């Protein structure tokens, strides 16, 4: 069996952990680099069922860190303590690839592969398409069609959009670096974000946190396959539903 640190080194070469934001917790969340693993599982998020079904000594690679904020207590009855208890009992290691992977892979996948835009420029945590010059209504319909959804929350501040910006996951706070007649496509748009953006003439489209990042496990699996690692993909359903 291979060692966890060997996979960690491969991932670090492709998406350096030093690129993560200061508030992030990417890297080895659970376990030891010197542990041997039985198989690799890739998922967007570790759920209780994924932890329960994972074999002993597995290595789970996830997008969202299981341990994100400092833990003051480890309550086995609630998230994330209920999952951590199982992982530790089964000697399962966990590597998180979060904002570092957004910068190197996932934002591009969101904007180019998922939504079909080209001519993109990287600007920190954002991917930008300048001089897109597209009608807002046409842009909204394109994104709905690409995601396969019928409804999306949005802020239409201008009928014509000059520049586009893309941030997968939760990037609504980043619109402050955009100019009027821009549109930010991201997830987790809050009410007051919408109010401020509207006052600045910036449009927003909430493509949802889940839809913008759901390609993570497949991308990681393809990367590790090229290094001769076999990876099982665990699909994760959006916990938020529009009914």
Could you characterize what this model shows?
The protein has 8 helices and 13 strands. It has helices at residues 4-14, 48-53, 81-89, 99-114, 136-147, 191-200, 209-213, 216-225; strands at 27-30, 40-43, 59-62, 93-96, 121-123, 126-129, 134-135, 154-155, 160-161, 163-170, 182-187, 203-206, 231-234. The strands form 3 sheets. It has a 6-stranded mixed sheet. Strands 1-4-3-2-13 form a 5-stranded mixed sheet. Helix 2 (48-53) links the parallel strand 2 (40-43) and strand 3 (59-62). It is elongated and about 55 Å long. The mean pLDDT is 94.
Descriptors:
single chain; 243 residues; alpha/beta; six-stranded mixed beta sheet; 33% helix
Low-confidence stretches: none
Strand content: 15-25%
Order of helices and strands: HEEHEHEHEEEHEEEEHEHHE
Strand order of the largest sheet: 5-6-10-11-12-8
Q: Treating each run of at least 4 consecutive H or I residues as one helix, how many helices?
A: 8
End-to-end distance: 45 Å
- The residue-averaged pLDDT reads 94
**What's the gyration radius in Å?**
19 Å
Structural class: alpha/beta
Helix-residue proportion: 25-40%
State the total count of DSSP E strands. Answer: 13
How would the global form be characterised? elongated
Which sheet architecture does the biggest sheet show? Answer: 6 strands, mixed
